[in-house]
Amino acid sequence: MKRNLITKITVLIVALITCAACSKDIVTGTDPYAGGKDPLGVGFYINYPEPGTAKPGELVDFYVKGLKGKLDQINFFVNNTAVEVVSAKDSLVTIKVPTQITSGNAKIVVGEEIFYGPRLEIEGNTSVDENYGMVNGFSGGVYDILPNAGGFIVAGSFYNFENEAITLNVPENQKVYRNGVHFIDANGKTSGNMKFGQGTFGGGFVRSIAKTSDGKFIFAGAMGTFAKRMVNNIVRVNNDGAIDSMVVEVINPGNDPKNSLDTVSAFNGGVNNMIIRAFTTADNKVIAIGNFTSHFKIDYDYSSRDSRRYIISSAKGVIRMKEDGSLDSTFALNNAGANGQIMDAAMIDNDRIVIVGAFTSYNGKAANGIACIKSDGSLDETFKLNGNITRLLKVSYNSSLKKLAVSGIFTGAGASGKVNNVALMNTDGTVDDSFILRDIGTGIINYAQILNNGQLIIDGTQQSYAGVPRANLLILEKNGELLQKYNSLGPFTGALYKVTETKSSLGEPALLLGGSILQFGQKTVGNFLRLEIKN
Question: Which conformational region is residue 414 in: left (phi greater than 0), alpha (psi within -120 to 50 degrees), or beta?
Fold first, then answer.
């Protein structure tokens, strides 16, 4: 072994001598990256500022190296907002937090060079409630949130909640489903007060929830089954979460007596496409909104347990169904509907329906992007939004203040002609000209909702508001002004679909936010969070 080691060392020495001799003949090419500017050597050498959280007007220190000889060339930004440099040394820069700013990362610009630094938190009156019990949240989008029995029914396209679902490699009686709809308590934990079985297992989702006057619930969306029962995009459940069902006689093709009866959904109605919104009336009828063209009803006299015979009726976009699910022809008779896509809807005064979208007429009558449908199904031709309307994306209604919030792509609305992108409307169709959305650049507002205190929460693709870089989610005053104290948190990553007012763990006003939400501030969220708002 010793002889082998000596041999290996000898070979290595010979190889090194040979390579050294060969290197004299190697010609080295020029550096392909040469000729550029020498690096400036600037950088943040401590990854936090002092203090880490500051209010507008306060001074904050950032630790930076390599600024000697360049102190008169630097420009300092936080969240892309220019800040005042109070003092600058070779290793320390002190900035003053401006009056209008959102939390974000720092950066120094020296000439054409950009050097990124640590995050500065801006203190404000809004924060993600850290005491909320939800940790992982929902595995997919949240579309609707309805308060009920001290908790909340949550609907969406999710298939799991808090990683609780167990559907593989366990007996059926041990499986746990979290598909499309789930009931949580006031602190964001699973509640056993409502159980939905398999829910929308198989890929469907619930888009809208409505409560009937007798305490039951309508779930509507895109689903072929619910809790293992066949449905056509809509179902009614009892207050414990079980399907409101009934037993019917059906054709029995064999001799087994049990095949003469079938347990089916008591709500015998549905449509051929997704339902965007569903509403209930005082007499428990159901109004469904979407871009469907047909209503389905099962004729059990000609159906068996395994085969259904459908009665199909023309029904376009906005229909009303009776309590048993059958089509209310007094409302939908000869309904031509909207001549373009319906994107959202709201019920006002527990009576009329306002739809918005990319259409120009309803039932053959002019309705540019918005239409108000009366309780008899006819169009209220006095209810209009003036201006240059490309399309309206969202409408929401605050029943306490009796005001609508409409958002989309439009300009020149209201009596003043100055209402753009978001309009607050009264129930007679007039526009509240006191609310003016400030400049949002090229962004689009995808969501707007009036809160009970008159403030407005909006979400969209805008990157700034009134010229100041901001998060996509903002809280505005009644006139459209943005107050710094409610808008210091950022970024907001995702899209907002639903807001429900509640209380925080400390009893402060709070908002439940549902949507396709990944992050708010430094908090990673699972499409759902509770936002605390301090007055």
Answer: left
